[in-house]
Specification:
- With 267 residues, the protein is of the alpha+beta class.
- It has 2 domains: 84 residues, Phosphorylase Kinase, domain 1 (2-Layer Sandwich); 175 residues, Aminoglycoside 3'-phosphotransferase, Chain: A, domain 2 (Alpha-Beta Complex), CATH 3.90.1200.
- 39% of the residues lie in helices and 16% in strands.
- Helix 5 packs antiparallel against helix 8.
């Protein structure tokens, strides 16, 4: 596998990583190949709208949020190559933090507030519902929506018959939106922390302007999955993902939370 990667890399990127040891990141679900070096990360994936968006969002966010710095970025032969600095610290889904749900919720809420305080006047992309539903429609038409790994109850008895039926419901039930900076996939593996402080945010391929509940909903779902043992670890006794709302100081809008979780089923 290494020979294949090295032989197809753009020469400039190959020169920057030549001879350096790395590990493959097996945590993400994007389908990209992610090579983690000591001080940098190389992400290789098919060229797509999300890959182009990530390149642009990382450039836009420099100096606005703690995000990786791009060392080299190229697209060729149908592939996107993104070499960037490695964020310090570790993902917030590490065992010590999962054992302290209140502290974890506080960190995630802090991260959301950091996003929402960014000046979005020059944000290069929209992730508002008009754009998201356009992308979702293209995925449904191409048969790219995964029904097997959807949340229980999304499809089948009591749920939707198909991704197309879900898409139709989403189009007919659009909630009101308030634009702010959205990560787009605000899940625990995409938030990094060190010594109790957030050190950065990864994976900006779905980022842009969107309603805050785009990130609140997926953060809530990610908290629930990580604390309930969904990924194979032992459930945290007495866990409550609702701690997130207290940390944010909000009363949750459950209709919006359900809407954005359902929308994500098409991605």
């Amino acid at each position: 596998m290494e020979v294949v990667w090295m032989s197809s890399l753009p020469p400039h990127i190959a020169a920057l990583i030549q001879g350096k040891a790395y590990e493959l990141d097996a945590v993400g679900m994007s389908g990209a190949a992610v090579l983690c070096f000591e001080d940098m990360v190389l992400k290789i994936e098919p060229v797509s709208e999300e890959a182009c968006r990530e390149h642009a969002m990382l450039r836009y966010l420099q100096g606005r949020l703690p995000v990786p710095r791009i060392l080299a970025a190229e697209m060729g032969n149908g592939r996107s190559y993104l070499l960037m600095t490695r964020l310090p610290g570790e993902m917030v889904c590490t065992k010590p933090l999962l054992q302290d749900p209140a502290a974890l919720a506080a960190l995630l809420a802090e991260g959301l507030q950091m996003l929402w305080h960014v000046d979005v006047s020059a944000c290069p992309y929209s992730a508002m519902l008009t754009e998201k539903l356009r992308l979702a429609e293209a995925r449904v038409a191409a048969g790219l929506c995964d029904m097997e790994n959807a949340e229980p109850g999304t499809y089948g008895p009591g749920g939707f018959q198909s991704p197309a039926a879900l898409l139709a419901w989403l189009k007919a039930n659009r909630p009101a939106e308030t634009p702010s900076l959205s990560h787009g996939d605000y899940c625990l593996p995409n938030v990094f922390v060190q010594d109790g402080r957030i050190t950065g945010f990864l994976d900006w391929g779905r980022g842009g302007l969107a309603d805050p509940y785009q990130d609140i909903a997926l953060c809530y779902r990610s908290l629930h999955h990580n604390l309930s043992g969904h990924y194979g670890s032992a459930p945290v006794p007495g866990f409550s993902p609702e701690l997130l709302f207290g940390a944010l100081g909000i009363t949750p809008d459950w209709e919006k939370i359900r809407y954005y979780i359902l929308l994500d089923e098409l991605f």
